[in-house]
Amino acid sequence: MMLEALDAARLGRHAENVFLFQGRHQACARLCHHALRLDPDEPAALRSLSDLLSGDQVQQSPWEEFSAAVLEYALRPGSPLGEAERKRIQDHLFLAKWSWAFIKRLDGQTTASWEELQNRALFCEESERYAAFLSPVLRCCESMEQVVDTAPTLAGLLGGLLTHQTLGGKAPTEEVFFPDRFVRTPEYDAWLKSETEPYDALERERQKRTKP
Q1: Which of 22, 147, 172, 181 is the most exposed place for a label (fewest CB within 10 A)?
Q2: Which domain does 194 fall in, by range?
Q3: pLDDT-flagged residues of the chain (< 70)
Q4: How many domains does the chain have?
């Protein structure tokens, strides 16, 4: 089967698998971009794109504001997500805020076990700092809905699927706030014609590892 035959949900699942097994790989960026072009509210693609744009203890990311904004977009009023997916993304955002130090323990400790992270009563959020962190992206995007045009454009650039129509690969980062200035590369169509087997293999491995 070719990638062009997959729906947004399958693409989002593959993006999630790529991130789980291979980290911030170009394939994850490509899968997120295409899934969100088909369905801007595809939850696995939104989570994976947020993970892709986030940093970690090994490597910082210049895109963390986008990473947070993608999750906020998923949780916006009027989002079509069901209750289970909404809770999953709420949990994802909580852990992201903890990793960025916008959520802290009430007792002042700087570490927490997985079990402790499940008890939200142990934590408080520094809401004003978090709002200031998000502010530059929301100001440039003008609305939460525009986030889901801007962030996938960034994913398309990182994945080599998009290029600036006049500046090519020399476009400054600020241009991602104008998604209509980007066009598909020849690589996009070639990638859509590629086989899904490498991603199917990751799915089989995930299923094997999660069997009870």
Answers
A1: 172
A2: 3-210
A3: 56-60, 212
A4: 1
